[in-house]
Amino acid sequence: MGVKKYYVIWKGKETGVFSSWDKVKKLVQGYEGAKYKSFLSKEEANKAVKKKYSDYQGKSNPKKTLSNADKANYGVPLKNSLTVDAACSGNPGKMEYRGVLHHNNQEIFKMGPFENGTNNIGEFLALVHGISLLKNKGLHSLPIYSDSKIAMSWVKKKTCRTNITFDTSNKDLLTLIQRAEKWLKENSFRNPILKWETKAWGEIPADFGRK
To answer: pTM (2 decimals)?
Structure first.
């Protein structure tokens, strides 16, 4: 079971504190300039809703500290692996993504920034980019780590299930998404896609360091 989160919406179809991400998603997706953020406790969320979004924008929440025993339950990540991640300034906003080898922190691809994207789209494209690159290089068994369950599920379903609106400002991004979906439907791969456990291992090596 994941860590329980609470969500503050400062600007959306409704505002306030919410405990369901499914509800929050409906209230912010498709809402231009939506402003929202997750918190690890109801107390922090109740405090934040009385302040301005700018007080929290771009700032990371305190991480829940795990004991050494809890960390041991997660094991350690495989060094011989590719890690991918995305960063987005705004929702939607300028988005970019990249792939970094875990064993030496070498960046092997980086794309963007793209206008009017989302972090989930970037995570999805990063995974597909990594998968196709490894296949082209004949590295069929090299694991790929992502810290996004949503992107991993989209890859499994071979569809980018975003609700973002596409127009002339992000038509290039739509083209990339369609190309990625087409690749997934026409190709098979054997690379294990693994979840990066941030709370036990720290930020994924491909992280942009902007939280």
So the answer is: 0.70
Q: Which residues of 26-49 are buried (b: 16+ CB within 10 A; e: fewer)?
A: ebbbebeebbbbebeeeebbeebb
| Neighbouring residues of 9: CB distance < 8 A, sequence distance ≥ 6 | 15, 16, 18, 24, 27, 28, 34, 35, 36
CB neighbour burial string for 53-63, b if at least 16 within 10 angstroms, e if fewer: beebeeeeeee
The 10s digit of each residue's pLDDT in 91-150 is 788 999 999 999 999 999 999 999 999 999 999 999 999 999 999 999 999 999 999 999
Handedness of CA 19, 21, 23, 25 (dihedral sign): positive
Nearest to 128 by CA among 158, 166, 87, 171: 158
Token digits for 198?
Answer: 């941030």
pLDDT of the residue at 65: 59
